[in-house]
C-alpha cells in the first residue's frame, strides 16, 4: 500500500511539472508572438496616467500665463487711472491759472491808470497818463499775440468785418468805390493769426439815381 502511495505521489508531481512546463511554454510562445509582431503592449492605466500628468502640466502653464497677464492688466489700469487724474488736474489748473501772465500785464495797466487819475486837476497830465495807459495796453496785448486789424479804406470782407451801417457815395466825387469801408465803429483783432473779433464798420454804397416815375393812370406801350 505504501508503494501505491509513492507511485501516486510521483504521478502528481509529474502532472504538476507538466502543467508548469505547459504554462511556461505558453508564456514563452506569447512572448515570442509579441516580439515577432514588433509591438509592445502598454497597459491602458499607464497611458491614462501619462495623459493626466501632461494635462496637469499644461494647466499649470496656462494658469501661470493668465496670472502674468492679470498682473500686467492691473498695472496698466493703475497707470491709466493715474494719468486721468493728472490730466483732470492739469486741465483744471489751466482754466484757473492759464491767464496768469496776462493778468500780470493788465495789473501794470491798472497801476498806471490809477496814477493818471491822481492828476485829474491837471488836464494835460491826465491826457498824457491816459495815452500812456492806452499804449501799454496795446503792447501787453501784442505780447500775447493780439494784433489789431486794418479795415479803413479796404474792401468789405464778410469774413472779417461786421457791417453796422451803409453810406451812399458818389464814386466820381471822392474816388471811393462801392463796398469800401468808410468808418470803423469798433476795431477788429486777430489772436495768433486767427480772428478774435470782427471789425464793426460802415460800408459805402453807390448813390441811387433819380428815376422818372410814370404817373398813375397812364398806360405804357
Total count of helical runs of at least 4 residues: 5
Largest sheet: 3 strands, antiparallel
Mean pLDDT: 76
Rg, Å, rounded: 55 Å
Strand content: 5-15%
Helix content: 55-70%
Q: How do the SSEs run, as a string of H and E?
A: HHHHEEHEEEE
CATH topology of the domain at 147-207: Nucleotide Exchange Factor Grpe, Chain A, domain 2
Strand order of the largest sheet: 1-4-5
Which CATH architecture of the domain at 147-207 would you pick?
A: Roll
Quick structural overview:
The protein is of the alpha+beta class and 221 residues long. The chain is built from five helices and six strands.
Report on the structure:
It is built from five helices and six strands. The protein is α+β, with helices and mostly antiparallel strands. It has a domain at 147-207: Head domain of nucleotide exchange factor GrpE (Nucleotide Exchange Factor Grpe, Chain A, domain 2). The strands form two sheets. It has a three-stranded antiparallel beta sheet with strand order 1-4-5. Strands 2-6-3 form a three-stranded mixed beta sheet. Strand 4 and strand 5 form a beta hairpin. The longest helix is centred in the N-terminal third of the chain and has 54 residues, at 44-97. It is elongated. The termini are far apart. 5% of the residues are buried. Residues 1-7, 22-37 and 210-221 have low confidence and may be disordered.
